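= Paired protein data =
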Amino acid sequence: MSTPGAPQVRFELLGHLRAWREDRELALGPPAQRLLLTVLLARGGHPAGLDELVGLLWEDDAPASAANVIQRYVGALRRLVEPGLPARTQGSWLVRDSSGYALRPGATTSDLAEFRAFAEQARQVEESGEAMAWFVKALDLCRATAGAGAAVPSRVAALLARIDREVAAVLMQAADLALETGQSPQPLLPHLQRVAALDPFDEGVHARLIRVLAALGRRALALEVHRAIRDRLVDELGVEPGPELARVQRELLAEPERRPERPAAPRVRPAQLPPGLAAFTGRDAELTTLSRVLEPAADAGTMRLAVIDGLAGVGKTSLAVRVAHRVAAQFPDGQLYVDLRGFDPGGAVVDPADALRGFLEVLAPGSVPTGLNARSGLYRSLLVGRRMLVVLDNVRDAEQVRPLLPGTPGCAVIVTSRNNLASLVVSDGAEVLTLDTLTEDEARHALGRRLGEERVTAEPEAATEIIRLCGRLPLALAIVAARVRTRPQLTLAALATMLRETRGTLAAFRTDDVGDVRTVFSWSYRTLDEAAARLFRLLSLHHGVDISAEAAASLAGVPLPHGRELLEELTRVRYLTEHRPDRFTAHDLVRAYALELMEATDSPEERAAALRRLVNHYRCVAHAATLALRPVRPPNDRVPVAEPGVTVTRIGGYDDGVAWYEAELPTLTLLVRELAATPALRCETAPLALSLAMPYEQFVRGEEWASGIELALETIDGADPLVAQLHRSLGLAYYTVQRHEDCLRELGRSMDLQTDDAERAYLHINLGQILGDVGGPDRYAEAVDHFRRGMELHRAVGNTKAEMIAMAGIAYPLAKLGRLDEAVALAEHAAELCEAAGEELALRTAQGAIAQVRLAAGDLAGATEIWRTSIDRFRASQGWRWALQVLEQVVKAHTEAGDHEQARRFVREAVDIIEEHDVPDAYGARRQLGEIERALSAGGPVSPSPG
């Protein structure tokens, strides 16, 4: 009975640990918390002191915080069963007194408490004839061993083992009562078979199992059980059966048969494996791994379980059958196979009881009991002492598997499923292999096996394109190969064209049966709940290589925790793969299937709203990431605000900003193009494209930068204030790709359109920098004028940081004009101001200006020393573009000075940065390196970079 007003709570320990509050199953928390609950339940209401709990949970290796950990988990368990419980309140269930913690007897409803109560009731009415009903009621609560599947310390394992022995003792008492009083022992048979399978050396349980089988007229099976346990005792322990088993055998041999029996059938060696796929190829690493997993242990002490999961059509069944044939010789008692049809389109999923009936009709003809537990118990009893391989194909979930797992060592099981069956790892020690698509070489060999190597060799480019457009998915390759086989006139080039023209759909992968790609993918889709199915469809709007959890949640318009749950469901059915923490990718054909579903299901308004949320997510995070990388923002910068339903990724600092842009910049580039092509969202193109200028500059992606701004200019009205900013951004993009005249033209257009003084100040600085760099001697004075006007405007609007950068920048053209003293004074003054203000980026600019002045004064060594410091700092902060820009200046300076060895060292460093970090070679470093090395080898002069 529970305390009045307390929630109805139930715990289960006689099997897997589970708990319910009212009719809702509870998530019991981390393993250590579950272990604490296991111990408290196993003690059956008796208190456990804190020291005792520490010893049970950690044995001899308890951390210093063990007591605090237990108290924390106690509090968590209390709140779990009573969510409204105030802090530091005991509540109705888990109490503490001077003796320790206990689940309150009489208040806690648990299967263990009920088992003991029912068994005690049976003993009290043993003389009345009602005892058997109470015994059966008690035993029916026992689903498996106590705390089944949990990894527990040895002392807790001993505590649970005592409960298992208690159950076995009650079972034997019930069996003795049934046999002595002539009552039918049929209800006890599945329990006897289960317990006997769990402990193959328990002579008392086996003796009662044999007597019950005989009493039920199954004398042949009783003799088989006796023979099996005798063989185990003799072969593995070197002893003969004890007196009880010997007496049972004598009784069995002396007793006349109670009913006619058919002659005992010879032991059957099943060989149910289907034939292997003739076109199977590759998968060598996977075959090796699975063969190792399935190899019987040297001590034969464990049942081996391998799970193959993966996307529909990836070849799970073919691999399972292949490896099963490979290892079959290691299992001399045979192989069992069943297709459990876990994703059958008609809903005809095979019930485990039906699968067991099929197995038992082979293993024990005419002896198939009714009910799942009885069949599972007999199945496990029959496999005791045997070495059998079992293949469970196309499984839906772990619950479909567990009744079909042998309970004895020496056997092995292969499971295939498109679902993630992680619970089999936790509870049954499974080894999981997630199958990926074929490698490029494997896919080519697979195509060759189906079409003939000569045909693939004759059209290698077309074969490569077919493989790419099929996404290296075995099912897709098989379908297109069958099309070629049935149409001999169809060339591979023509097939590649057909696939190319239908790319983004599944039209090219249709067949006349239920095995085409769309149909196979649909079987998983039908298992999704509506929210997960909706997210799956909307993900087709995202064209990047992968998507973050935050972006996916924004796309669906749901909170991040709910979004993660939906992503987990899509990962479970293998539509998605979490290839990095919180980043998910999908096969191209899965994307195509999602797109077809979205176009058929979701309205244009829903799609537009989802895409708008995605754009808002990216704009908000891009703004935060840009500030983390370069914390300088013009006063009139438009700060995006997260809209309802949008999740914004937290950017904690510079490293977070770099990591986010490295992951997302390719996706953002695609998104700019998509927005430009979507009439309802064209207005979003310009703000997003402008927000990407800084990362494009830092990661040296000038071509993508320019392309995005060009698209944005096509989408915007000429009177929009953003037009001036777009022309400025385009000019800077052109500068990074050496289009200097185009750069100056676009900056001039921006200056003509711009009316905001803060923006005009930046434009003047940009023009000063570029004219000072590439304008030539006749334009250095113009560069100085732009810098001075920029400084004045920055001062007027209060942008001190930008004013310091301008002060340093003016030193470049002043030095080139020969005004060295003035240049040095300005650059050094700017450096002092920047250092005092802690402005690192501005300081680097000022020091670069000092280096240029020293170079102009003929001090190459002094300039190089300053440049070296700047390069090292830019490399440390992953500012590759700026590091390359400085290196380009150093290489040019040393080349012009005739120091070719030093020039080679610096240009080699630039090439290393380009190759190691996949940075575009914007300054022609590779070309320069080749020219320098060729000139040094020939002993001739080296031409300086055109700069």
In short: Residues 1-5, 257-265, 941-947 have pLDDT under 50 and may be disordered. Residues 154-181 form the longest helix (28 residues). The chain is about 60% helix and 5% strand. The radius of gyration is 38 Å.
